[in-house]
Specification:
- The chain is of the alpha/beta class and 302 residues long.
- Helix content is 44%, strand content 11%.
Length: 302
Amino acid sequence: SMPQDVILAQYREQGRLMWRGFTLDQFTNQCFSNDLDLGRGRQMPIHYGSRALNYHTISSPLGTQIPQATGVAYKMKLDAAAAAAKGDSSHDPGVAVCYFGDGCASTTDFHAGLNFAATLSAPVIFFCRNNGYAISTSVEDQYAGDGIVSRAQGYGMAGLRVDGNDIFAVNAAVRKAREYCLTHNAPILIEAITYRQGHHSTSDDSSRYRCPKEVHSHFTSTDPVKRLNAFLERHDWMSADDTAKIRDEERMAVLQSMEAAERRPPPKLDMLFTDVYESMPHHLQRQEQQLHSHMAKYPAKY
């Protein structure tokens, strides 16, 4: 995607954000909710966002970004029409790119978002990461049809399926999808077939609902990093030693960034009451005064 493209992501798009220029320190500052956190400590960890990089802040409820992406794309379409009316035919308005998983495609927001996008002819790429599981629910228990992309025809939009573990195939698919959106002023649904090797989260034990042999099979045969490394090594562009060195260097960089972020102070207390209104209303002023009075009464607790 291009810098003017607006991204509405979920939990697994850190690579897209880093590619755009979000620094390692910005990631860790957000996770520790310190004074340098762009979200001012108001979000849960890994709920990144950057206005400068056209990356909407992550939302915890699954699927909310899908209809929002349609709205973003429709606004971009209107802006493009206004620019064309002024004679600016060279203006590239960009597209909206919305990421979500196979489980998200079972939400009502998926239906509303895609149906609105199709009827409004909004230039948005819906990118579904079908990794086989929605937490512990396998795709066999999620749908009886042919995956996610088969739904595109029902909404009257274009769709394509791609090997989500092939970095070059995904790149080509998204490039063509972006070209299609801008050329036809219309949405498109991409289904990237991949596999979630790890547990859903630190509180999840995936061995309770899938066989470890299944995970090992995908790790040895379809792992995208292993496939890319094999390609680079085959062309003598990188060796196994180079890969190991990069992995070690990046691991140390992450640890150092986390340690630095942990040492920083939290955001200022008054930031609890700012940014919602242009001018703080009386009820928030009263709440701020009550908070300071409470903290002054119990200083040992704070």
